[in-house]
Design goal:
Elements lengths: L5 E4 L9 H17 L2 E6 L9 H14 L8 E2 L4 H13 L3 E4 L3 H14 L22 E4 L6 E6 L3 E6 L7 E3 L7 H11 L4 E5 L3 H13 L6 E5 L2 E2 L15 H6 L4 H10 L12 H7 L10 E2 L2 H14 L2 H15 L8 H12 L6 H8 L12 H6 L2 H15 L6 H15 L7 H9 L7 H8 L1 H14 L2
Parallel strand pairs: 1-2, 2-3, 9-10, 11-12
Antiparallel strand pairs: 4-5, 5-8, 6-7
Helix pairs in contact: 1-9, 3-5, 5-6, 8-10, 11-12, 11-13, 12-18, 15-16, 15-19, 16-18
The chain binds one RNA strand through α4, β7, α5, α6 and β12.
Amino acid sequence: MSSPVVTRIAPSPTGSMHIGNARSALFNWLYAKHTGGKFLLRVEDTDRERSTEASVQVIFDSLTWLGLMWDGEPVFQFARAPIHKAAVQRLLDAGHAYHDYLTVAEADALKEESRAAGHALRSPWRDRKPGPTEEGKPHVIRFRTPDEGDTVVEDKVRGTVRFPNKDIEDFVLMRTDGTVIYNLAVTVDDHDMGVTHVIRGEEHLSNGGRQTLLYKALGWDVPVFAHLPLILGKDGGKLSKRHGAQSVGDFREMGYLPEGVRNYLAKLGWGHGDDELFTDEEAIAWFDVVDVVKAGARLDFDKLNHVNNWHIRRADDTRLAELVLPILRDERHLALPDDALARLEAAIPLVKEGAKTLQELADLSLYAIKVRPLALDDKTIGNLTDETRGRLARLVEALRGANDWTPQGLQDLLKAFAESEGVGLGKIGPALRGVLSGGVQAPDLGSALASLGRDESIGRIQDALSHLR
RNA sequence: GGUCCCUUCGUCUAUCGGUUAGGACAUCAGAUUUUCAAUCUGGGGAGAGGGGUUCGACUCCCCUAGGGACUGCCA
């Protein structure tokens, strides 16, 4: 009965993709998936200064990494300039727009006057035909905003929002150089792309009024609008670099999983009862724009960490190992053994419960990929008393004979060994830990031994016993 | 200045006129302990203020205060 939903994300290439933009993309994606509709991408590259090939690529990369794949080919706004111009001409022909020969300075002065008079800018040129002096002179084309009445935006999250027309200025549609302005381009493109639901940041709410005016003047159906609350920084201010992260790339570098970011972002400004941690399938099944919250939300890394940890726990270990490996190799410049990937795969399931990010997962699994002989930290060296050395040597024998090389089996073996030595585990644990890990974090000893394997474990212990005297 | 939006624990939120105002993160205390975590148990913590409407308001209306967006020949 109702036409299929079409949503879109329309970022402009600025060199990075803001996380707020990413959330808009997510909500559009979720809503399209939820309704079985389409999610389109339009690159707003009309600002030729900033629109480099590289910054366009950032948009593709950011969305791809986030797992928000768009349907069909992306639309490039700049390429549609002739269509935009035709729309302006239609507006001109219908009397909804006019040529304005005011200079920038004159327009500024007039805005001041209008403001003082209690209304927005209305150019004298709206009812004046260019004379011989103006013919051929540079000028802009402005929209003829109605003087009376209100423009109403039926917003899915904010309800009915009315803008008095007298307070909406005769905004520019086409610049002196013949290129069109944002509001015109967006309206024409959204219409041509068949967009049914415009879901975007709250900063566009007042543009919703101007665009509604354009849709009506052009004789088109107005799409459903839904304006999302802003994402704020920890201090409640606008999210910026000083808050630690603001672009999709930042979050990626900090070691967040795309599904973790999706989950957290979805929770930021939208909710489904008490559900906090969920999969994409659940989010898609539950999502609806009418459930979006109105107030701006602060980005909280503690909560993000918690959400991300949940997704790391349920992520595939091979995938995690493949993500952690380059961090260790390329970011930390560590020399890795040939079987590094296999070692990481063995270690990750033992340590991932405590990892909030991939960076932490790298810290926690670092012990596993160290190359023998390990450099020992001072604390461990201090622990290697003659007494302890004797015990470790005897432990090596016990390990050689171990027939249950599993975390639990080895845990039991250690307990039994400590007992046979007549001491508590605390007497041998710290030294063994240091010798096995080289001083970095490692899981409990049974798990550490199990993940390292018999040869590597015994080798590391013997290295310590022989290399240090 | 004008227009518009917003306002429940520190943070994200639930509540859709009747609840001891619920949950999550964070925090605090305890348990556990071979590092760091993780885990378990328990605790503290909220309706911006003022008026209405109503038998009854966090919930509806108005005012004030505070925060934010827009007010570009940027998007």
